[in-house]
Design brief:
heterodimer, A: mainly alpha, flat, B: mainly alpha
C-alpha cells in the first residue's frame, strides 16, 4: 500500500477522522462491499503506520482472500474502491463542516421538493442566524443571494394575478442585490491580491472589468457594507498609486475594532497600509514611521499577525515589524519581539528570520561584527532574503571600512539585480539606486570636493525610489 | 404522525429514495440509535401511506418500547430525530448526485488537507469533464472559478521565488475571469427575468449596475460564450425597445448555438423571439406570424416548451401557439396541438386552457355557438384570462349579431381595464383600443356611412396598439 494514493489520503486523517472513516466504510448507504470493510479493519490495526509490511498489496490480498492465489488486478480494484470511499468520506465530512453550504443545499432541496412547511422553518432560522453574524463576508452575501433566489422561484411559480389584491408591488430584487455584493467582494479581493503581487513581482496583469466596477462603486453608498468599503478603498489605494485619502480611510477601518472584518481581511488590511507606509516613508519621514509602528503595535496586541491563527507568521511581516521598531530606535522592543514571536515562524524559516533581524539590530547598535556573524547564519531562502542580506552586508562593510569587500559585493549585488527577472520593477529600482549612490559615495569618500558631495546629497533627495535613503544621506553628511 | 413535518418530508421521497434513506438510517456514520432504525422499519411497512392508523405517535411508541407506558416527549424526540436525519439525507444525496458540487467539495478538502497527488488527479479529471460539456452555463463557470481559486491558493502558499527559474510569468487570472463570466450570466439572467416581468405586470425595478455591465460587454467578443451572448443580446433587445439588430443576433443564436444553451435558456430564447414578433406587430403592424410559427415548431420539435420535464406547460404559451396556428389558418394543426399537449398543463388549469383554446378554434371555424359553449367552461383563473375571454366573447357576440349583449360586455370589459392596476399599461391600451374600435364599429354597422367606415379602417390600420386588429379590419371592410 506504501506510496499508493490510498495511503496518501489516509495519512492525512487524524485518529478521530480515521475512526469516523471506519463508520463511513461500514455504512450501507455508501458501501456494500464487505471486502473493503475487511481492508479497513486490517489497516486500522497498524494506522497510522501505513508502510507496515503487513499492509503490502500481497499481504492485504492474502488477508482478505486467504488460501487464494494472489491476483494483482483484484488487489488494485480493492484499493481503488477504498480510495473512492476515502474521497467520498472527505467530501461528505467537508459538507457537514461547511454550515453555509449545508444550509443552502437543505433549503434548495426543500424548495425543489416543494416541502414548504419545512422550508419556511429553516428559512426563518437561517435568516435569524445570518443577521446575527458579525463578520459579513462574501459567503454571507452568497448564502443570502441563494436564499432570495429560492424565495423568488417559489413566488414566481405560485403567482397568479387574479384580483386587485394580487398586485405584486415592487419586485423582490434582494437576490440580485446580494449577488452583486457577493461578486464585488470576491472580485475585488482577487484583484487586490493581484495588485499586491504586481507590486513585488515582475508580472503582467489584465484586470478586466475593473473600470466598470469602480464606476459603479463610486455611485454607491458603501458604508453599509464594511467589507466592500474596505476592498474598494484598498483597490483604489493601489490604483491611485497610493493616494493618501484611501490610506487614511483604510487606517480608520483598521483601528476600528468593530469593523466587521474577519481575521483574514484584517491581516490583508494591515499588509496594505504597511505597504503604503513603506512606499511613502521617503517623502513623509518620521510621521509615517510612527504610523507604521502604531499599526504593527495594534496588530500585535490584537493578534492580527497571520491570516489565521494556525498559520505561521510570514518572514516578510516579521521583518517589517522589526524594521519599524528599529527605525524609531526601539531596539529593545525589537529584540523582545524577535524572542517572543520567533516560534510563530514556520520551523524551516525560523533560523534565517531570527538571524537576519538580529543582524539588523546589531547593525543599528553599531555592533558590526555581531551583525556579520548573524548574517552568515542566514540562508538565501528566497529572492527577497538574497537582496535583503546583500543590502545589509553592503552597509556593514561600508561602516567597517571593508572597501574591497564592499566593491566586490556591490558588483555581485548589481549583477544579481540585472539578471533576475522575478523582482518587480519598483523593488529592483529601489535596490539599484542604493547601489549606484553607494558607488558614488565610495568615489567621493577620499577625494571628493564638498560641492560634489553636496550635489550627491541633493541627488538622493531627488531620487524618488531609493532603499535606505536615510542611511545614505547620513553617510554623505559624514563626508562633508 | 399524520400532518407532521416528518410526513411532509418523507412523502416527497420516491420509493427508490425511501429505500436509500433506509440504508442511510442504518449507516453508523449518520446514526447509531437502534430505535430510529425500528421506527424506520415500521414506517417502511406502510410507505407511502403515512395516514395509516398504525402510524399514530402512540402506536409508534408502543412498537418501539413494547410494554412501556406511553411517553409523549420520547415519542416526539424520536420523530424529531428521524426528521433531522431525513433533512441530512436529502442534502447528502443531493451532493452525491450533483457532480459539480461533489467535485467542488472534494477538491476543496484535498487542497485543505494538502493531499496534492490526489488533488492533481481529480483536478485533471474535473477539467477534462468540464471542457467536454457542450453547455457552458453559470454552474460551469462557478465550478471553474472555485477550482482555479483553489489552485491559486496552493500556488500562493507554495511559491518561494529563489532563482531565475521561479519567474511566475503572467498571473493566473482564470479564477477572476471565470467568476466574472459566472456573475455576468447570472445577473443578466435575473435582469432579463425582471425586464420580462415589467413587460406584462405594472411594476418598476431599478436595475443598478446594468449600465456598467453593458458597457463592459459591449467591448467584448461574446461569441466564445454562447449563453452570455444570448443574455446580452436579449437584454439589449428589451433595452433598445426591440431593435432589429439584436433580434437578428438572437435568431443566429437559435440556429447556430442552440446546442450550447441549456434548456432553460433555449426556452427563454424562444420566448424572447416570440415576444419580439408580438411587440413588432403591435407597434408597427409588421406581420411576423410565419416566423413565430417557425420558432414554435422548432420549440415543439426540440422539446423546449418547458424548462424541465417535471414542470407543467404554461397556459400562456399553450394559448400563444394555438393563436399563431389559427392566424395562419392551420386549424387542424391547432386542434391536434391542443389535444396532444393538454395533459402537459397543470391539472388545476387544464380545463380552462383547453376550453379557451378550443373556443378560439371554433371561432376560427365560424362555429360561434360551440365557441360560446367552450368559453362558458373556461374559468377566469387570472386577470389575463379575464380580459382575453372578454375579448373573444365580444367578437362572438358581434358575429352572432348579439349587439345588446355586446354593448353590455364592452362596458364591463372597459370597467375591468380601468379599475385594474395589475395589467401593464401597454396591454391595457391594446385592449382599450379594441373596445373603442368595436364600439365605433357597432355604431357604424347600421349607419353604413362609407366614408366614416373607410376612415375607421384607416384609423385601425394605423393604430400601433390594437388587439385583434386583423379581425376588426376585416369586419369594417365587410361593411364598406
Amino acid at each position: 500500500m506504501k506510496n499508493s494514493k490510498l495511503a496518501s489520503l489516509l495519512s492525512k486523517l487524524s485518529p478521530k477522522e480515521f475512526k469516523e472513516f471506519g463508520k463511513f466504510v461500514k455504512s450501507p448507504y455508501f458501501n456494500s462491499n464487505s471486502n473493503v470493510v475487511k481492508l479497513y479493519d486490517l489497516i486500522s490495526k497498524y494506522f497510522p503506520n501505513l508502510d507496515h509490511p503487513k499492509l503490502a498489496k500481497e499481504n492485504i490480498y492474502l488477508h482478505i482472500y486467504p488460501d487464494e492465489k494472489y491476483n494483482d488486478s483484484t488487489s488494485r480494484g480493492l484499493l481503488s474502491a477504498a480510495l473512492k470511499l476515502g474521497e467520498d468520506f472527505l467530501a461528505v465530512s467537508h459538507l457537514k463542516d461547511n454550515e453555509d453550504r449545508y444550509k443552502e443545499f437543505l433549503l434548495n432541496e426543500l424548495c425543489e421538493r416543494k416541502i414548504f412547511d419545512l422550508f419556511n422553518i429553516h428559512l426563518k432560522k437561517t435568516r435569524t442566524e445570518l443577521e446575527n453574524i458579525g463578520d459579513k463576508d462574501e459567503d454571507y452575501f452568497y448564502l443570502k443571494y441563494r436564499i432570495e433566489t429560492l424565495i423568488n422561484s417559489i413566488d414566481s411559480k405560485s403567482y397568479i394575478p387574479l384580483t386587485q389584491k394580487d398586485i405584486p408591488g415592487d419586485i423582490n430584487i434582494k437576490d440580485t442585490e446580494n449577488l452583486i455584493i457577493y461578486f464585488l467582494v470576491s472580485i475585488l479581493k482577487r484583484y487586490n491580491y493581484l495588485f499586491t503581487k504586481t507590486g513585488s513581482l515582475n508580472v503582467a496583469l489584465d484586470m478586466k472589468f475593473l473600470d466598470e466596477i469602480i464606476a459603479y462603486l463610486e455611485k454607491t453608498d458603501l458604508r453599509e457594507i464594511p467589507i466592500l468599503n474596505y476592498h474598494y478603498n484598498r483597490a483604489m489605494l493601489y490604483r491611485s498609486n497610493m493616494d493618501e485619502k484611501y490610506f487614511l480611510e483604510l487606517r480608520k477601518i483598521f483601528f476600528d475594532e468593530n469593523n466587521g472584518l474577519n481575521q483574514y481581511e484584517r491581516y490583508n488590511l494591515l499588509a496594505s497600509i504597511s505597504n503604503y507606509c513603506v512606499q511613502k516613508k521617503k517623502f513623509s519621514g518620521d510621521e509615517l514611521s510612527q504610523a507604521q509602528y502604531e499599526q504593527f503595535k495594534f496588530a500585535i496586541e490584537n493578534n492580527i499577525l497571520t491570516v489565521d491563527h494556525s498559520e505561521p507568521i510570514h518572514p516578510v511581516m516579521f521583518s517589517n515589524i522589526v524594521n519599524s521598531q528599529i527605525h524609531l530606535d526601539k531596539e529593545n522592543e525589537a529584540r523582545e519581539f524577535i524572542q517572543n514571536f520567533k516560534d510563530r515562524l514556520a520551523p524551516d524559516r525560523m533560523e534565517s528570520a531570527e538571524n537576519f533581524n538580529m543582524a539588523r539590530i546589531y547593525f543599528k547598535e553599531k555592533k558590526f561584527d555581531k551583525a556579520l556573524e548573524c548574517l552568515e547564519l542566514v540562508q538565501n531562502e528566497d529572492i527577497y532574503y538574497k537582496i535583503g542580506v546583500k543590502n545589509l552586508y553592503a552597509m556593514v562593510y561600508y561602516d567597517k571600512n571593508l572597501i574591497e569587500e564592499l566593491i566586490l559585493l556591490l558588483e555581485s549585488y548589481k549583477s544579481f539585480l540585472n539578471n533576475t527577472v522575478v523582482l518587480g520593477p519598483r523593488l529592483r529600482e529601489n535596490h539599484m539606486n542604493f547601489i549606484l549612490i553607494l558607488f558614488k559615495i565610495l568615489k567621493l569618500k577620499d577625494f571628493g570636493e564638498k560641492i560634489d558631495i553636496e550635489y550627491l546629497k541633493h541627488e538622493i533627495n531627488d531620487t524618488p525610489s531609493v532603499l535606505n535613503g536615510e542611511w545614505l544621506i547620513k553617510k554623505i553628511t559624514e563626508l562633508i | 404522525m399524520k400532518n407532521s413535518k416528518l410526513t411532509s418530508l418523507l412523502s416527497k421521497l420516491s420509493p427508490k429514495e425511501f429505500k436509500e434513506f433506509g440504508k442511510f438510517i442504518k449507516s453508523p456514520y449518520f446514526n447509531t440509535n437502534v430505535n430510529i432504525v425500528k421506527f424506520y422499519d415500521l414506517i417502511a411497512k406502510h410507505f407511502p401511506d403515512f395516514a395509516n392508523e398504525k402510524l399514530t405517535r402512540e402506536n409508534i411508541y408502543f412498537h418501539i418500547y413494547p410494554g412501556e407506558k406511553y411517553n409523549d416527549s420520547t415519542a416526539r424526540g424520536l420523530i424529531s430525530s428521524l426528521l433531522k436525519l431525513g433533512e441530512e439525507f436529502v442534502v447528502v444525496d443531493y451532493i452525491r448526485h450533483t457532480k459539480n458540487h461533489y467535485t467542488n467539495f472534494l477538491l476543496s478538502v484535498l487542497s485543505y488537507k494538502e493531499i496534492f497527488d490526489l488533488f492533481a488527479v481529480n483536478l485533471n479529471t474535473a477539467r477534462k469533464e468540464a471542457e467536454n460539456i457542450s453547455v457552458k452555463d453559470d454552474s460551469y463557470f462557478f465550478l471553474k472559478f472555485r477550482i482555479e481559486t483553489l489552485l491559486s491558493q496552493i500556488d500562493n502558499k507554495s511559491y518561494i521565488p529563489l532563482t531565475q527559474k521561479d519567474i511566475p510569468g503572467d498571473m493566473n487570472t482564470e479564477d477572476a475571469d471565470s467568476l466574472i463570466n459566472y456573475f455576468l450570466i447570472v445577473i443578466l439572467q435575473k435582469y432579463n427575468y425582471l425586464y420580462s416581468k415589467t413587460g406584462s405586470l405594472n411594476v418598476e425595478v431599478d436595475l443598478n449596475f446594468l449600465d456598467e455591465i453593458l458597457s463592459y460587454l459591449g467591448k467584448k467578443d461574446l461569441k466564445q460564450i454562447p449563453i452570455l451572448n444570448f443574455q446580452y443580446n436579449r437584454i439589449m433587445l428589451y433595452k433598445s425597445k426591440m431593435d432589429v439588430k439584436y433580434f437578428n443576433e438572437l435568431k443566429k443564436v437559435l440556429y447556430e448555438d442552440f446546442e450550447h444553451l441549456d434548456r432553460s435558456d433555449a426556452f427563454n430564447l424562444v420566448g424572447t423571439l416570440q415576444n419580439y414578433c408580438v411587440q413588432k406587430h403591435r407597434s408597427t403592424n409588421e406581420d411576423l406570424t410565419d416566423f413565430e410559427y417557425e420558432i414554435f415548431k422548432f420549440a415543439i420539435e426540440k422539446n423546449i416548451l418547458v424548462t424541465d420535464d417535471s414542470l407543467y406547460l404554461s397556459p400562456i404559451l399553450y394559448s400563444n401557439i394555438v393563436s399563431v396556428m389559427l392566424h395562419l389558418d392551420k386549424i387542424d394543426e391547432a386542434t391536434e396541438f391542443i389535444l396532444k399537449y393538454k395533459n402537459n398543463i397543470a391539472p388545476d388549469r387544464v380545463e380552462t386552457a383547453f376550453n379557451f383554446n378550443m373556443a378560439k378554434v371554433f371561432f376560427a371555424e365560424k362555429k360561434f355557438n360551440e365557441s360560446l359553449s367552450s368559453l362558458a367552461l373556461a374559468q377566469n383563473e387570472d386577470v389575463f384570462y379575464k380580459i382575453f375571454i372578454k375579448n373573444l366573447t365580444a367578437k362572438i357576440y358581434y358575429e352572432l349579431g348579439y349587439i345588446d349583449e355586446l354593448v353590455l360586455l364592452l362596458d364591463a370589459y372597459k370597467n375591468l381595464l380601468t379599475s385594474n392596476i395589475i395589467i401593464h399599461p401597454s396591454l391595457k391600451e391594446n385592449h382599450s383600443n379594441f373596445i373603442s374600435f368595436t364600439a365605433k364599429l357597432i355604431r357604424l354597422k347600421d349607419l353604413k356611412n362609407k366614408s366614416e367606415l373607410q376612415y375607421l379602417k384607416h384609423e385601425a390600420e394605423n393604430q400601433p396598439s390594437l388587439m385583434s386588429s386583423d379581425w376588426l379590419i376585416k369586419k369594417i371592410t365587410e361593411l364598406i
